[in-house]
Design goal:
It is a single chain. This protein folds into two domains: 4-92 and 179-278, HAD superfamily/HAD-like (Rossmann fold); 99-176, Hypothetical Protein Ta0175, Chain: A, domain 2. It is built from ten helices and twelve strands. It has helices at residues 26-34, 49-59, 88-95, 103-110, 139-152, 181-192, 209-212, 226-239, 260-270, 275-278; strands at 4-8, 39-44, 66-69, 74-79, 83-86, 117-118, 129-133, 157-164, 169-176, 199-203, 218-220, 245-247. It has 279 residues and is an alpha/beta fold. The strands form two sheets. Strands 5-4-3-2-1-10-11-12 form an eight-stranded mixed beta sheet, with helices on both faces. Strands 6-7-9-8 form a four-stranded antiparallel beta sheet. Helices cover 34% and strands 21% of the residues.
Length: 279
């Protein structure tokens, strides 16, 4: 039995909470595919675990085997007997980048910087500091100032920026350098003993770009913003990973390529034998 790991972002990738239409009945088809014993399902999201659970309930999507949450800074495994178990191995992996520090120490170093607006307490965690960025903020200058402060703390960090179209607001997450969706997926692959040839990732937004343009086979759903599509296409070409990136087209398997339809289309592209699971 060939084992597969399917990793997917939630908002506007699996969850149909964007403006594009969803293919009728596609969530039932998705649920049937991920219920197969040879497939391991992981949700990779900027949401925290509570909001992931909320999405599972609200949209009736399957409970995954793994959750990589908080933009890659936390990882959980579903235990049939005990519920969600956080991976301490992952916490130890990323803690090395912020030696003896937490997001509260990083916040203190940023207090005098004008422009960023701290998100709510529920959006912060030990290894994730999250801000709103109003339109017009000079991202280049802001990053220079923040990175200088991080260097003083000897904190190796990732800067994850995305744009919330509905709120018309920038979103910025400061994380340990290795606390990215890409490294988290690679860590999970190693934990499960699976390689890139047995893994597929699906995403739609700017904070998915590092993994979309990596060597991990990835699908960009058809409803992704044109700017993200353009960036992914150009970056994968420059990195020589174009063959690992699939752009869902729609009109495949009687589906439109948006949301979970795009995920299934990409799965079949990289693993043609799975077409029988859908049809």
């Amino acid at each position: 039995m060939t084992r597969l790991l399917l990793c997917t972002d939630l908002d506007r990738t699996l969850l149909p909470n964007g403006e594009a239409p969803e293919s009728p009945g596609v969530r039932d088809r998705f649920a049937a595919v991920v219920a197969r014993p040879e497939l391991t399902l992981a949700y990779v999201s900027g949401r925290d675990l509570m909001l992931v659970e909320q999405a599972i309930e609200q949209y009736g999507i399957p409970r995954p085997d793994w959750v990589i949450s908080d933009v890659g800074s936390r990882m959980y495994h579903w235990q049939l007997q005990g519920g969600w178990l956080e991976s301490m191995a992952w916490q130890m992996e990323i803690a090395c980048d912020w030696p003896g520090l937490s997001s509260w120490d990083i916040l203190e170093a940023f207090t005098s910087i004008e422009g960023p607006i701290l998100q709510g307490q529920d959006r912060q965690s030990k290894y994730k500091l999250s801000y709103f960025l109003p339109l017009g903020v000079d991202l280049v200058s802001l990053r220079q100032v923040m990175e200088a402060r991080l260097m003083e703390l000897q904190a190796r960090s990732s800067w994850i920026y995305s744009f919330d179209e509905q709120a018309q607001m920038g979103l910025l997450d400061i994380l340990p350098e290795r606390a990215t969706k890409l490294h988290a997926v690679e860590f999970l692959m190693h934990q499960l003993g699976l390689g890139s040839d047995s893994t597929v990732f699906a995403g739609d937004s700017g904070n998915d770009l590092p993994i979309l343009v990596s060597s991990v086979p990835s699908v960009l759903v058809a409803n992704a913003h044109p700017d993200v599509l353009k960036q992914a296409h150009e970056a994968s070409r420059q990195r020589g990973t174009s063959q690992q990136l699939y752009l869902a087209q729609g009109h495949s398997l009687a589906m439109n390529g948006n949301y979970s339809a795009g995920i299934l289309e990409g799965l079949v592209h990289f693993h043609p034998h799975t077409k029988t699971w859908i049809t």
